[in-house]
Write a structure and sequence with these properties.
single chain; 181 residues; alpha/beta; six-stranded parallel sheet; 6 strands; globular
Length: 181
C-alpha cells in the first residue's frame, strides 16, 4: 500500500496559533503520511466571483481534499462558533463536486475557555453534514488551556490530551486505510 495522504485545515490563520500546533501534533499522532496543509486564505464567497470562474486557490483546495485519504480540521472557537475563514472555505467547497463524500475526517480544537472548543466542534459537525464525510465522533479532542499544554518547542506535552489525540488519530488512520484498500 502506498503512503497515506493526510490534509490538515486550520481555522486560525495565525502562524503560531494553538490550533496550528494541535494540527501538527495530530499529524505526528497519525503516523507516516504525506501531509499537506490546505490554504484557507480564500476570497470571500461571492456568486458573482464564482460566475467569472472558480478561483484557482479554491480549485487547489478542493483537489487537495479530494485526493486526500483523510482530513483533520483544527478549529478554534470565535464567539461560540467556527471562525469565518473556515466557514468561507466550506462555502466555496460546497460548489460543484463532492470532495468530502465518505472522506474520513477528524475535528480537533484548542480554545482558552474551559470547554476547549466544544461549541465550535458542535457547530462544525452540523456544517459538515451536507458534505457527507465519514466524520469521526470521538474521542473528542477538546483542548482547554492550551497555553499550558504545549512545550517551548510547540510539542503537545499534556498527557491526557496526547492520549486522546493519539486515539483519535489512530482511528482516523484506520478509517483511511479501510477506505484506500
Amino acid at each position: 500500500m502506498s503512503e497515506l495522504k493526510l490534509v490538515g485545515l486550520c481555522g486560525s490563520l495565525r502562524k503560531e496559533s494553538w490550533n496550528r500546533k494541535l494540527m501538527h501534533a495530530a499529524k505526528e499522532a497519525f503516523g507516516p503520511a504525506e501531509f499537506a496543509e490546505g490554504n484557507l486564505r480564500l476570497p470571500l464567497f461571492d456568486e458573482d466571483l464564482e460566475a467569472q470562474g472558480m478561483p484557482a486557490e479554491v480549485t487547489k483546495l478542493k483537489d487537495l481534499i479530494a485526493n486526500a485519504d483523510a482530513v483533520v480540521i483544527a478549529c478554534p472557537e470565535y464567539n461560540k462558533a467556527p471562525p469565518g475563514v473556515l466557514k468561507n472555505a466550506l462555502d466555496w467547497l460546497s460548489r460543484g463536486g463532492a470532495p468530502w463524500k465518505d472522506k474520513p475526517v477528524a475535528i480537533v480544537s484548542a480554545a482558552a475557555g474551559r470547554a476547549g472548543g466544544e461549541r465550535t466542534q458542535f457547530a462544525l459537525r452540523l456544517m459538515m453534514v451536507a458534505f457527507r464525510p465519514y466524520l469521526l465522533q470521538g474521542p473528542e479532542m477538546l483542548l482547554s488551556s492550551p497555553s499550558k499544554a504545549f512545550g517551548e518547542n510547540g510539542n503537545l506535552t499534556d498527557e491526557v490530551a496526547s492520549k486522546l489525540l493519539n486515539e483519535l488519530m489512530q482511528d482516523l488512520r484506520s478509517a483511511a486505510q479501510r477506505r484506500s484498500d
